[in-house]
Design brief:
two-stranded antiparallel ribbon, about 40% helix, D-Maltodextrin-Binding Protein, domain 2, about 250 residues, alpha/beta
Length: about 250
């Protein structure tokens, strides 16, 4: 009898540990994780999705025995991905800059890490931006609905002064060729893309900071709070363990 009671107690104890883990994995596996090409945070190389935000997400979900893998994360152009996340259902979009304008459109998990949105220009043009009013003197390149686009519009610049292009790679080349004078984008990402485009980063400079913020995982509004709390807890655990610092070192 005592052995039977002991075995029952051990089974219940093990089950109490496993059930939350399986439940968390099940909840996370119902979500669709989508991203864009935004290196070094998230990008695709040799057919595989990589980056700081990708590795953090996978390290976190691994703790719950989730089946999420890099192969299950889909990469889309930002305008399409942003619309998908707003409409849902069960979409997680990253890496997303958290702003007042976007606050009510999503629920937010993170932060992933700090971000700086700037206006980049060619040094040879000697552009000086002291205030938002100075931006209107130049043609600005931006990706539709990207944070750079939203922040430039917030300064009051006319839409006719903004050249909208779907990819950052094209904007980098346009800036280098002088077809746009300013590029509104996240600085680390812009400099990564400039290098990949075969251009020299020393030829470019940040002439104005539009916003200092943080990157997050943006949850479509239909996802329940319990599932959000699960991922937040797991991300906090990865960061507390020191693993995230090793992840960043591999990219920056």
């Amino acid at each position: 009898m005592k052995i039977s009671l002991l075995m029952t107690s051990l089974f219940l104890a093990a089950t109490s540990v496993l059930i939350p883990s399986f439940t968390a994995a099940s909840e996370l596996d119902q979500l669709d994780f989508i991203t864009e090409s935004y290196p070094p945070y998230n990008f695709k190389r040799d057919g595989e999705v990589k980056g700081i935000a990708v590795d953090l997400l996978l390290a976190a979900t691994k703790k719950s025995s989730s089946s999420l893998s890099a192969q299950k994360i889909k990469v889309f152009p930002w305008p399409r991905a942003y619309k998908m996340a707003i409409l849902g259902p069960k979409i997680v979009l990253f890496s997303t800059t958290r702003t007042d304008e976007r606050e009510h459109k999503f629920n937010w998990i993170g932060p992933i890490m700090p971000t700086r949105i700037v206006l980049l220009a060619k040094k040879s043009n000697s552009i000086v931006i002291n205030s938002p009013n100075d931006i209107s003197k130049y043609v600005v390149g931006a990706i539709p609905n990207d944070i750079g686009d939203q922040l430039v519009k917030k300064t009051g610049i006319k839409s006719s002064s903004i050249t909208h292009i779907a990819t950052a790679e094209s904007l980098a080349k346009m800036l280098g060729a002088g077809r746009i004078k300013l590029w509104a984008y996240e600085e680390n990402v812009a400099r990564w893309i400039i290098k990949q485009a075969g251009l020299d980063n020393n030829d470019f400079e940040a002439v104005y900071t539009l916003k200092d913020s943080d990157l997050y995982y943006a949850f479509s509004k239909d996802i329940d709070k319990e599932t959000q709390d699960v991922l937040q807890k797991l991300i906090d655990e990865v960061k507390a363990s020191g693993e995230f610092e090793k992840i960043k070192t591999g990219y920056l």
